[in-house]
TrEMBL record:
InterPro entries documented for this protein: Aldolase_TIM (IPR013785)
Protein name: Uncharacterized protein
Tree of life domain: Eukaryota
Pfam families reported in the protein's UniProt record: NMO (PF03060)
Amino acid sequence: MLPEIAESVPVFVAGGIGRGEAIAGYLDMGAAGVQLGTRFVCATESIAHPNFKKAFIRASARDAVASVQIAPRLPVIPVRALKNAGGELFTAKQREVAQSLDEGSVAMAEAQLQIEHYWAGALRRAVIDGDVEHGSVMAGQSVGMVTKEEPIADIIASLMAEAATALDKRAA
Ligand SMILES: Cc1cc2nc3c(=O)[nH]c(=O)nc-3n(C[C@H](O)[C@H](O)[C@H](O)COP(=O)(O)O)c2cc1C
């Protein structure tokens, strides 16, 4: 699908990209560029709390799980984050609110608001305050490729070198 779309509009591919080989692959398929988030969280220049960076360095791809939504009538914004107690408690909160809804002790609008409010500020709690157990440790599956804190210039240099090698191999 990417090659067809990229013929008419510039496409930037995002999500799960951790190495230059993947960048080369998408450029080869016609992408104008890529967007990486997770790979830069542990940059020396990143203001993320040391606990947040440590959680990234320890995590593997399987630890970055999509948010759980227990009932379609109580929508949850889908995000990927590292498994932690906060995620479990959020699932429990959804069950509790769904039960209140079934019992008629809460109206639909109020129930949806309770779900939304419960997780509000959770990203800040983890990234800035460093509470990686109860905050939302948002991370893509490329978190498994984050192994140390390093300057942005080094991350970019690695990505560029990997992409260039991959593109050269394809051209040969
Ligand atoms: C710490 C962190 C916070 C993020 N916050 C948001 C957000 O508030 N809204 C959003 O749409 N995406 C958010 N994202 C997801 C980014 O959009 C995503 O990282 C980006 O598209 C690239 O994907 P990647 O992280 O797999 O490289 C966040 C990602 C991280 C790592």
